[in-house]
Amino acid sequence: MEAWRIAAAGLAAASVVGSGVAGFCTQALGADKTYVQQGKDQHMVLVELYTSQGCSSCLPADQLQTELAGRPDVLALTFPVDYWDFLGWHDTLAHPANSQRQMDYSKRSQSGRVFTPQMVLDGVVSAIGSERQDVMPKLNDREMVASRVPLTIGVKDDQVSVAVPAAPGALNGSETGKATLWLFPFGKVSVVHIGGGENVGRSVRYAHVVGNFVGLGQWSGASVTYEHTLDSGDRDEFGYAAVLQEDHVGPVIGVAWAGDSARMDQAPVAPDAGVDADPLSVNTIAR
User: In terms of C-beta density within 10 A (0-12 exposed, 13-18 middle, 19 or more buried), how is residue 278 classed?
Assistant: First the structure.
């Protein structure tokens, strides 16, 4: 299955098991590829970065995202997009599905455009990813938001289980009365040498790059566990994030991730001191 074919194939790839929340443990279960995170009543801000190797103004945002990826109160996910490939370099990490997800956010907000580098916080707040002064106050504001639905995610070999407890009141703000549960496998750090376009000659580091992602199903407030079999390309990723969003790409109401315990405690890559932020330089495209 190709990474970007989400809407129909992704929702069909997962199965729903029973109506009770699975009894996950909080510790590793002994196998090398078994990772578990128990759902907790705490807030973790989801920061999505939409970036491109063909975007010269994206480099400071890529650096900031690497920094945010090392924070325990942030789930930083990077979504390389492909719509700047015509500038002379085809992004080696981009997927059309990432571009579509960003455009879905644009349609929901009725902004009429997408831009890079864009950070989307908790599915509701947009920021210029290259401008720290724009990102950090908005991130601090999101950290004050009340606790959300405590998801529990477990990964064993190629099997993923995500348990969602009963929480009907969590959907009071939803337009459809439902939420979508997403699964985002992601890597730790990807280093790419760019051979053309605006960033020719640069070696750029990307944190928590999302490749394949799938919708596990629709949630309407009842207690339920979703199960999914990973594609072969997703079975050795650094981490696996479960994100529950109102409607399709609405406000985030639940987030959890599990990863390789041997790698989770490693320090993040140090930022590149030679990259200076350009807060006003963004690439935009009409949707």
Answer: middle
